[in-house]
Write a structure and sequence with these properties.
The complex is a heterodimer of chains A (145) and B (280). With 145 residues, chain A is mainly alpha-helical. Chain A is 59% helix and 7% strand. Chain B is 23% helix and 34% strand. The longest helix of chain B is centred in the C-terminal third of the chain and has 10 residues. The two termini of chain B are 45 Å apart. Classes of the chains: A mainly alpha (145), B alpha+beta (280).
């Protein structure tokens, strides 16, 4: 069993065979940095719990394609902030399947949206000058037809 | 915790997200903000939009391509590029990155194509290839092209189109419809098409004098849609030969047009090639 410590002090136990879905944890174990527990200062407790839910399910139901598909679909039905936390965690822990799943979810949300709609969803400021914006629009005119 | 700002995502996460949209979306996303732009224009994104065999395609180009980013290469590929010494041309569909190929007339099997009393080969300014084939005279038109689905984008329905036009001195091309087909392995799908639309006055004359003969000849041809050539943007016409699905298994596609059941002599058909492109 491997012990993981989240940034806010929560402790989680998980089987090594499941934990190695995270390439980061796998390397730490291989490099013998995992004797007592592994500190994960970049992931909070709530997010780590979710990530573990994902990797546990994917370990135990490995061959059940249909089951995993519906699990994944339900798994990403979370608010935007939580989704981003999971993306950050999946990136840091280097869990390819989870990263692809969560990134695809965000990608599906922003496909076919206008520039203004994307800014609104993510609360992003337009930091281009009018000249820069005009040039960009000109270069990519075909994408706005 | 307050709402997570997109700007807090590391650039490669933002790039991964962009790479899972489409080339069209990525161009729009690069206009959202400067950090989005940096993520959306990265090589990580555009490498994903390029076909997986883009290096092989680069090795086949007639002229070496100069580019300083994968995005630039993508857009170079979206304009028609000559491959294999100019025998084929290739292009990517801008919005989706799907591939199209055009086989030049030289790449096709044309019955008697190398016999100068039947077909001649001309350099035309409006052709993208070195030569187009012009029919002088024959009573049998048999044109065939082949392509393997592994060259194409997977999971895509493709249409095959014969790119052609008719010279001002053509004859015998509107008598009866041609038989067209697209074969996937052993699965054959046939149809019919006219090489040129009928001239109204000529039709009336024909029905006056030759009604029976034309009827009789036409009855030899299989049933079909009797498609007509359609105008293209590049000044040529095209005939839709049929469609096929490019799936997981590599298959050979054979596309053909034959007019062999009308025994009249025909001439004035000019062939540019066969284009295989994704169906919208």
């Amino acid at each position: 069993m491997i012990v993981l410590n989240s940034s806010d002090g929560a402790t989680f136990e998980v089987e090594e065979s499941v934990a190695v879905q995270s390439q980061t944890i796998k390397h730490m174990i291989e490099d013998n940095c995992a004797d007592t527990s592994i500190p994960l200062p970049n992931v909070n407790g709530v997010t780590l719990a979710r990530v573990l839910e994902y990797i546990k399910k994917h370990a135990e139901a490995k061959d059940d394609e249909e089951g995993l598909k519906s699990f994944d679909a339900e798994f990403v039905k979370v608010d935007q902030a939580s989704l981003f936390e999971i993306i950050l965690a999946a990136n840091y822990l280097d869990i390819k399947g989870l990263l692809d799943l969560t990134c695809q979810t965000v990608a599906d949300q922003i496909k076919d949206l206008t520039v203004e709609e994307v800014r609104a969803i993510f609360n992003i400021m337009n930091d281009f000058t009018p000249e820069e914006e005009a040039k960009l629009r000109n270069d990519h005119a075909w994408a706005f037809e | 915790m307050s709402q997570l700002d997109f700007n807090m995502l590391p650039e490669d996460c933002a790039s991964t997200i962009c790479s899972l949209t489409s080339p069209e979306d990525a161009c729009r996303l690069s206009m959202v903000s400067s950090s989005f732009r940096s993520a959306a224009e990265s090589d990580l994104v555009w490498e994903r939009f390029l076909p997986s065999d883009y290096r092989d395609i680069l090795a086949r180009t007639l002229k070496p391509l100069k580019f300083s980013s994968k995005k630039e290469l993508f857009f170079l590929f979206s304009e028609s590029i000559l491959l294999d010494g100019g025998k084929q041309s290739f292009a990517l569909e801008k919005s989706s990155g799907r591939k199209s190929f055009t086989l030049s007339a030289r790449e096709l099997s044309i019955l008697h194509g190398n016999e100068s009393n039947h077909w001649c080969w001309k350099s035309l300014t409006e052709s993208r290839f070195a030569e187009a084939a012009e029919l002088k005279t024959t009573n049998r038109i048999e044109i065939e092209g082949k392509i393997r689905t592994q060259m194409l984008s997977p999971n895509t329905t493709y249409g095959a189109h014969l790119i052609m036009k008719i010279s001002s001195q053509s004859f015998g091309l509107d008598c009866i419809p041609s038989e067209i087909s697209v074969n996937v392995g052993d699965n054959v799908v046939t149809n019919t098409a006219y090489l040129r639309p009928k001239d109204e006055t000529k039709q009336q004359m024909q029905s006056l004098f030759y009604a029976n003969r034309v009827q009789m000849l036409k009855m030899r041809v299989n049933e079909g849609d009797e498609r007509l050539p359609v105008e293209r943007k590049d000044g040529w016409m095209e005939i839709n030969l049929g469609e096929f699905f490019s799936g997981a298994v590599d298959e050979e596609i054979t596309m053909s047009l034959m007019e062999i059941k009308g025994h009249q002599l025909k001439g004035g058909l000019i062939i540019e090639g066969i284009e295989v492109r994704p169906k919208n």
